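ok so i was messing around last nite and threw this chain in just to see what happens. nothing serious, just curious
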Amino acid sequence: MEAPAPVPGADKGITVFIDNFDSFTYNVVQYFQQLGANVRVFRNDAVTIEELDALAPARLVVSPGPGAPADAGISMDAIRHFAGKIPVLGVCLGHQAIVEVFGGRVVGAGEIMHGKQSHIHHADEGVFEGLPSPLMACRYHSLAADPATLPSCLRVTCFSVRGQAESPPVEAAGDPACMTRLPADAPKDVPAPTRHDDDVIQGVRHEELSVEGVQFHPESIATQGGHAMFAAFLRRTSGKWES
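result:
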C-alpha cells in the first residue's frame, strides 16, 4: 500500500489520543502519524482534564475499546471539556461516548458485528466528504447508538442496513480473512436505501460543534477510505463547523 501524503498543518499542535485499552489503538495512531499528526497517547485512567488542558491540544481523538462509554475512563469528560474548543473525533467506543455525552443512549446492536464488513451509506459530509457511497467498512461492535434517543443536536452521517454484512467474522482487522472484499473490489452498483429507524447508525456529527464519531473502524485494512477520513479530520482547525 502506498504511503498517504501528509496533511499540511497536521503537525502543528498536539493531537491528544485517549486510549481505551483497545488492541487497535496503535493501528489508529499509526494512520494519524502517517498523515503527519503529532500524536500524544494517554490511557483513559492515567491522565486528568487539567493535564490535557495544559497541553493546549489542537485536536482530540477518542479510541475504540471494550465495554460501554461509562467504562471508558476520562473519555466522556474529555469530550465534554473540549467539544466546541477543538475538533473531536470518536472511533467505535469513542463514537458511542459522543452519543451519550450529548444525551443519546447506547444499546445492544441486536447483531454482533466483530470483524464483519458492511456497506456504509453516507451523506458525503464530514469525514466522508468526497468518498463513494456506499463504501465498505469493517465493524467490531455489539453496542450501537439508539436512534430513538438520538438528540436533535446530533445528525446521522452514515448507517448500515441491518443484516447487510459482506463477510464472516475474523479475529483482527489485519487478518487476511477480513480481506475477502478489499476496498478496490467494493461494489459500485449497490443502491443507497433511505435510512429507517431499524438500520444501524454508523456515524454522527454535532450540528454546530466540530464533533464527529464513526462506529466502524477506519483503520482496518478492510475499510475503504480510512486514511481519507482521518485526513479530513486533521484538516479541521476550529471547534465549530466552518462554513
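not much to say yet. The longest helix spans residues 25-34.
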